[in-house]
Amino acid sequence: MPDIAVVSLSGGLDSCVAAAIAKAEGYDLALLHADYGQLTEKRERRAFQEIAEFFAVPEKRRLCIPFTNLNLIGGSALTDPSIALPEGDLAREGVPVSYVPFRNAHLLATAVSWAEVIGAKRIYVGFVEEDSSGYPDCREIFLKAFEQAANLGTRPETRLEMVAPLIHMKKSEIVAKGLSLGAPLHLTWSCYQGEEKACGRCDSCLLRLRGFKEAGSPDPIPYSQIPDEFRI
């Protein structure tokens, strides 16, 4: 029997490609998804389920966790309606208001707990450091520190490895990797605010559109608008 890998799957482009890589590397997938009160929570959940169906992951290895604490804490434009989500700006520096405070630590802690229970060997995440929105909890140094903490705080025989296969890729390279693996990019959802059509204006949409443009492939999901600079 193949070893199991837990994949943190938001339903977005990066996590979908990370799942495809884990599958290609011979692991049986266990998919973890978090609902934390984000603006596009229902649409992301749908993307998660459709990607899970594509990879034929059984229901017993699909786990959706309600992180209502993150919604109650707020502090992000994705979870707090009093904080406006600004227009996308890929030249903006610093940590954006779309950053959900320490969200990935909650995700990783849950992934570690589940991995220990089901006997998984690896945890895959779609973290991207070089071509992302500048979130501090997507950095390789953070992931390595969390891996060390996880192995200190679990059974001696657990020995988990945390894998971020996209960490040093540009978005265009992630798109190309996903296409080469036959990942279901048409099922993914990255927009921060649209659920029927992607807005084409937020940072996440602009990063995604730029990635597809530089990869020379049209983005297969619907948009309300696409800036001229990212049209193919």
Describe this structure as you would to a colleague.
Helix 1 (13-24) crosses helix 6 (171-181) and helix 6 packs across helix 7 (203-215). The protein is α/β, with parallel strands linked by helices and 232 residues long. Strands 3-2-1-4-5 form a five-stranded parallel beta sheet, with helices on both faces. Strand 1 (4-8), helix 1 (13-24) and strand 2 form a beta-alpha-beta unit. The longest helix is centred in the middle third of the chain and has 16 residues, at 103-118. The chain has one domain (4-195): 3-Layer(aba) Sandwich (Rossmann fold). It is built from seven helices and five strands; from the N terminus they run βαβαβααβαβαα. The protein starts with a strand and ends in a 17-residue tail after the last helix.
Estimated radius of gyration: 17 Å
* Strand percentage: 5-15%
Number of strand elements: 5
CATH topology: Rossmann fold
The name of the CATH superfamily reads HUPs
Fill in the keyword field for this structure.
single chain, 232 residues, Rossmann fold, five-stranded parallel β-sheet, 5 strands, 10% strand, globular
SSE diagram, text form:
Layout: E1 4-8, H1 13-24, E2 28-35, H2 41-54, E3 62-66, H3 68-73, H4 103-118, E4 122-124, H5 140-152, E5 161-163, H6 171-181, H7 203-215
Parallel strand pairs: 1-2, 1-4, 2-3, 4-5
